From TrEMBL:
InterPro entries: NAD(P)-bd_dom_sf, SDR_fam. Coiled coil: none annotated. Keywords: Oxidoreductase. Belongs to the short-chain dehydrogenases/reductases (SDR) family. This is SDR family oxidoreductase. It comes from the Bacteria. CDD domains: SDR_c. It comes from Nocardioides hwasunensis.
Amino acid sequence: MRRLEGRVAYVLGGGSDGPVRAGESLPMGNGRAIALRLAEEGATVVVGDLHLDRAQATVEHLATPGLAVQVDAADPGSCRDAVAAVLAHAGRLDVVVCNVGISGREPLKVQSLDDWALADAVNVRSHWLTAQAALEPMLEQGRGSFVFVGSTAGVYSSRRSLSYEATKAAQLGVMRHVAVRYAARGIRANAVVLGNIDSALVRREFGDAGAEARGSVVPMARQGRPEEAAGAVAFLVSDDAGYVTGQSLLVDGGVSAAWPTPSAIS
C-alpha cells in the first residue's frame, strides 16, 4: 500500500542500537521499524535520534529518500530545532511519531528525583514539545496526525518502575489533549500502547535468555515484533483511520484482555 504518498513524517526516536535478531544484520527497534514502514507506504521520513549515526543507519534503509537529524530528547531546544529541521528540509509536516522513551527500575520506596526528572523529560516533555512545535504548520495546512508510542505500563502497573509507569500514563494524557483540543481543525492524535515487543531495547536490557518467559505471559504465546507495532502506527496515521482520534490502540497480544493471568486460562 502507498497510503502516505506525498506526505512528510517525522519519527522521534528512530534509531536503534540493541542486539539483532537471529538472521538479521540491522538492529530493529520500534522507532526504526516505524520509519521503515512509513517510507514503504510512500512517506518522506525524517528520523531523529540522540545518536546521529543510528538515525542515519535507519535512513539508509528507507524505501524513499529521507533525512537523519540529531536530537536530544532531554533538551527542549533540541526538540524544537529538530522539528524546524524537518520543515526546512521538506517544507511541510504531516505525520509526527513520538517514539523516544527510557525505562526505569525504581519502585516508590527508592524512587530518586534524578531518575524521575529524566523520565519526565524524555517520556513526556519531549513529546509535548515536539507536538507543540509541529502543531502550527499542521494547523496552517488544515491536517496532521500524531502517534505517541506508549506502553501497557502506562495503563497497568508492572510494579517495577514508578517513573516509567507515571510518565507513560502522562504521555497518554498529552495525546488526548491534542486529539480533543484540535480535532475540529483537522488534527488527529492517537497512541499505540505496546506490550511485550521483541525490540532491540528489550533484548539489550533483558537479554535473549528471557525471551521465552516474556512470551509465556502473552495469550498469543509469543512476543510481538517491532514490525507489528509499525503496522499499527501506519494505520493510525493513514486516511484509513480518518475518523479515529484520541484512542489508545493496545498492541499487546491479548495481555490486557486476560484475567487473572494468561497462563491460568487454558
